[in-house]
Amino acid sequence: MDNSRIRAHPFLDGKHVAESKLPAAFPVYGGVIEVAMSSHGIKRCHYRPLDGQPPQLTPDPASAEGRSARFGTRHPGLSGAIAIGSVLLVIGGSGQE
Fold first, then answer.
1. Three-class SS state of 40
2. What is the rounded distance in angstroms from the CA atom of residue 80 to the CA atom of residue 73?
3. Regions of the chain where pLDDT drops below 70
């Protein structure tokens, strides 16, 4: 996968404030936000404070990650069934070559 064209775009109060190739580190008040991609999507998006334990970040509700998290919270049974079905498809597909 060519990550050279994938960029991180942080926003502050709804305004675009920076842009960087990945992996990226954006200095923010009290720490830094680190972003990295894997071949399957976002690998890491962490806030690293200068002191103390990093808090859990929540995805933007309008993003794919936010919609997925909301779906999992609202429909945990269906979300689990989809996850199991996905794993079975991957396992079943990997044996056919």
1. coil
2. 11
3. 1-4, 95-97
pTM, to two decimals: 0.51
Do 6 and 50 belong together in one domain? yes
Do residues 5 and 49 share a domain? yes
CB burial string 20-55: b at 16+ within 10 A, e below = eebebebeeeebebbbebeeeeeeebeeeeeeeeee
pLDDT tens, residue by residue, 13-41: 888 988 888 889 999 889 998 888 887 77
What is d(CA 84, CA 77) in angstroms, rounded to the nearest whole number?
11
Instruction: Indicate if 53 and 65 belong to the same structural domain.
Output: no
- Do 61 and 71 form a contact (C-beta atoms < 8 A)? no
- Residue 16 host element (H or E): strand 15-16
